[in-house]
Give the backbone structure.
Amino acid sequence: MAENSLRNSLSDDDLVRLVQSGDRRAMDELVDRHHGVVFRTCVAILNDEDLAADASQNCFIKAFRAIDRFRGEAAIRTWLLAIAGNEARGLLRKIKGRREQSIEDVVPVASSDHDPSEQVTLDAEVARVRLVLLQLPRKQRLSVTLRIDEGLSFREIGEIIESSEGAARVNYHHGIRRLRELLES
């Protein structure tokens, strides 16, 4: 148990150094810390949880194979998200098209803290926003999703969408404006 609390107190940079020296438990800790954001980024690109799971797994495999080349110029999270974005885009190119979304993927599970009628209204609105979000160009959709859902900085978003920080900021603002326009129409 003390080992777990020790691992949890280590910074990402410390964990990277441990991984580079061959520590598998540090690798597991990095996966635990960053799997959620990597997976959600892949889902945002692929719109398919099964493909996103594959892309996430490939991301971590590639990252740990290349961990000795990680220079620390950016945060490990940013580096992992850049790899995840590349993996997801590679899968998109492979499948050359998108599969249909199932209704389970669109409608979130109801929470027991809300009045059922309020939850139905909320669920419908969330589904509507998610569907409208899919109409945005890819870079705008990713900028909005990564900024709102993941709280990433524009610099991090720029690296993931393969553009500058300024372009990420512009894509986000255009995406939000277009999202509002589509939701009002």
Remarks:
- The radius of gyration is 18 Å.
- DSSP finds ten helices and no strands in the chain.
- Residues 62 and 83 are 8 Å apart (CA to CA).
